[in-house]
Task: inverse folding
């Protein structure tokens, strides 16, 4: 048996309590609606120090949605640069440095090519496209990935003792590269060819006899030398033929001579007096000082006369001149 007390239930509260809850709810809603972060600064804000004004304006509470999205995207990009690439051993910044600054452009071209091919043919398979595989091999190589896509036609290979070898005179005696070795070599050469292409474009756009033009020529010759060393059998003695390796070695020597000659001329220009003409250097070179000393000595000798086997200074007047001997 229960008792029912007159009046309201204990759960409903008093009328004063209900009104207090309503006031609190209204004040909380007003507080969220009129947030201090949304209000403009009032008062004598112009009297604040400039650094404090900058901190107030740069506060996260003042940031708009586009600014927040921009900061978030920048943080993601920075984190990607610091983290190692998926399936690779290098970070993106390291791969960009290894590629000579071409990795971003290669990746951009790869994405553009994928979109174009998918638009043309929705059933397009990138892993069956040699152009896509060749470019992807470059990206993987720069990022330290061991993944290599096969781009060598089957007509250029043959199976020897259960292993795929390149066709050639010594293929049956295991004197040719395997398919994976040849693919790795082709990727390296393709990367160097991209560097040569970029260097040649810089040579054309650079002013004549400028440092930029000389640096671009050095990059071109270094990449050509690298290709020659690869083809000469530096990485694998089984590459190419005896004749092709010999020709590649001659090309390496030629490129090295070009680099040495350019370096010699660069050092010669650095030591020349003409380099310091614009800087108004008053100090004379050793060769010029020696020439001037010789001229002074020759003038002093002209002032002297020889008489009776003795050298003496020529008198300046007739009074000081000695009488002739009888």
Result:
């Amino acid at each position: 048996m229960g008792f029912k007390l007159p009046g309201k239930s204990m759960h409903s509260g008093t009328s004063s309590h209900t009104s207090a809850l309503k006031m609190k709810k209204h004040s909380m809603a007003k507080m969220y609606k009129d947030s201090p972060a949304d209000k403009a600064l009032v008062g004598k804000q112009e009297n604040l120090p400039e650094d404090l004004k900058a901190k107030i304006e740069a506060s996260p509470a003042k940031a708009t949605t586009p600014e927040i999205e921009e900061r978030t995207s920048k943080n993601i990009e920075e984190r990607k640069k610091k983290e190692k690439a998926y399936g690779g051993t290098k970070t993106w910044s390291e791969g960009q440095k290894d590629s000579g600054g071409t990795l971003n452009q290669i990746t951009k071209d790869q994405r553009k090519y994928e979109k174009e091919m998918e638009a043309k043919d929705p059933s397009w398979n990138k892993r069956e496209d040699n152009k896509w595989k060749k470019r992807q091999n470059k990206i993987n190589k720069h990022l330290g990935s061991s993944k290599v896509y096969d781009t060598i036609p089957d007509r250029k290979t043959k199976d020897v003792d259960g292993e795929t070898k390149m066709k050639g005179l010594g293929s049956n005696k295991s004197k040719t590269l395997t398919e994976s070795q040849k693919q790795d070599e082709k990727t390296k050469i393709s990367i160097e060819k991209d560097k040569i292409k970029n260097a040649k474009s810089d040579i054309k756009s650079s002013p004549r006899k400028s440092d930029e033009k000389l640096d671009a020529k050095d990059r071109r010759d270094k990449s050509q030398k690298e290709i020659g060393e690869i083809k000469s059998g530096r990485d694998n003695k089984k590459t190419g033929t005896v004749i092709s390796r010999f020709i590649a070695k001659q090309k390496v020597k030629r490129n090295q001579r070009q680099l040495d000659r350019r370096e010699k001329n660069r050092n010669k220009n650095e030591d020349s007096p003409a380099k310091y003409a614009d800087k108004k250097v008053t100090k004379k070179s050793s060769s010029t000082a020696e020439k001037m000393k010789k001229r002074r000595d020759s003038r002093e000798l002209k002032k002297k006369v020889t008489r009776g086997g003795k050298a003496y200074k020529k008198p300046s007047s007739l009074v000081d001149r000695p009488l002739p001997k009888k």
Q: What stands out?
A: Residues 76-151 form one domain. The chain has a mean pLDDT of 75.
